[in-house]
């Protein structure tokens, strides 16, 4: 399973499968996990990706998830319950 991460600062994106937390290779800030499915991301056109990245750059950092989703731990870390 691959996960998409977006840097809310500079808009850089990375796709990872194993890493749980990511630091941006461009600007060194924490990257947010993009909640879009990796396969959907692959299907997105450039324009749509830009839109999504823009959305992450506008978002309040407290609304973003900086961990990739993992079953069980996920909910605990994100304070859902
Ligand atoms: Zn960055």
Secondary structure elements and pairings:
Blueprint (H helix, E strand, L loop, with lengths): L2 E4 L6 E4 L15 E3 L3 H6 L2 H13 L14 H5 L4
Antiparallel strand pairs: 1-2, 1-3
Bound molecules: zinc ion.
The site of zinc ion has 8 residues, from loops.
Please give a structural write-up:
The chain is α+β, with helices and mostly antiparallel strands and 81 residues long. It has one domain (3-77). Helices cover 30% and strands 14% of the residues. It is built from 3 helices and 3 strands. The chain has helices at 38-43, 46-58, 73-77; strands at residues 3-6, 13-16, 32-34. A 3-stranded antiparallel beta sheet has the order 2-1-3, with no helix packed on it. The mean pLDDT is 82. The chain binds zinc ion. Zinc ion binds next to loops.
Q: Largest sheet, if any?
A: 3 strands, antiparallel
- Classify the secondary structure makeup into a structural class: alpha+beta
Q: What percent of residues are in strands?
A: 5-15%
**SSE ordering:** EEEHHH
Number of strands: 3
* Count of separate DSSP helical elements: 3
Low-confidence stretches: none
Q: Count structural domains.
A: 1
Helix share of residues?
Answer: 25-40%
The overall average pLDDT, rounded, is: 82
Bound molecules: zinc ion
């Amino acid at each position: 399973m691959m996960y998409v991460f977006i840097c809310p600062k500079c808009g850089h994106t990375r796709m990872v499968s194993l890493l749980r937390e990511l630091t941006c290779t461009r600007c060194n800030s924490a990257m947010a996990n993009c909640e879009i499915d990796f396969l959907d991301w692959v299907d997105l056109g450039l324009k749509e990706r830009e839109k999504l990245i823009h959305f992450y750059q506008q978002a309040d950092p407290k609304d973003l998830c900086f961990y990739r989703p993992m079953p069980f731990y996920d909910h605990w870390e994100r304070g859902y319950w």
